Amino acid sequence: GVFSFPQQTAEGIRDALQLSSLFIDFEFDDHLFSPCGYSLNGIKGDRYFTLHITPQEQSSYCSFETNLTEKDLPAEVLEHFLLKLQPERWDLICVDRPLLVAKSRDNTSINTCSITTDAGYDVYFKHVDQQDELLFTQII
């Protein structure tokens, strides 16, 4: 996979995920972890996203947090990440953007919740633990 080579670079991962073309004019701050793993923050004005990737073969995981609207970040972009990364488990956290409620399927667990912060932000959480391929746009 893209994220399993010791010679990987942050720039190489950004290119593989096409971050510059998906998030035009965002400023990126990212970090590679040893022996593997990647974390990125993207900021543009008051909009942000955070991406974490843990590509270990025995327990692959990724998370994506954002306050981007569905117009600015359609489900197809999130699906793009999931298809490229193919994690066994993943989290999606959105601020002021409700998430679809999807039913769990065989070999898949989907858990969702939401909270309203003291500052009045609605924060939506989704955790997916999947053992086989899903149609991502149906659960994002």
Q: Explain this structure to me?
A:
There is one protein chain. It is built from three helices and seven strands. By secondary structure, the chain is α+β, with helices and mostly antiparallel strands. It has a single domain, classed as S-adenosylmethionine decarboxylase. The chain has a seven-stranded mixed beta sheet, with helices on one face. InterPro entries: AdoMetDC-like, S-AdoMet_deCO2ase_core. This is S-adenosylmethionine decarboxylase proenzyme, putative. GO terms for molecular function: adenosylmethionine decarboxylase activity. Pfam families: SAM_decarbox (PF01536).
Mean pLDDT: 83
How many distinct domains? 1
* Rg, Å, rounded: 15 Å
N to C succession of SSEs: HHEEEEHEEE
CATH architecture: 4-Layer Sandwich
In percent, how much strand structure appears in the residues?
A: 35-45%
Number of helices: 3
CATH topology tier name: S-adenosylmethionine decarboxylase
Contiguous runs where pLDDT drops below 50 for at least 5 residues: 135-140
Structural class, judged by helices and strands?
alpha+beta
**What is the number of strand segments?**
7
InterPro entries: AdoMetDC-like (IPR048283), S-AdoMet_deCO2ase_core (IPR016067)
Pfam families: SAM_decarbox (PF01536)
GO molecular function, one term: adenosylmethionine decarboxylase activity
Organism: Shewanella benthica KT99
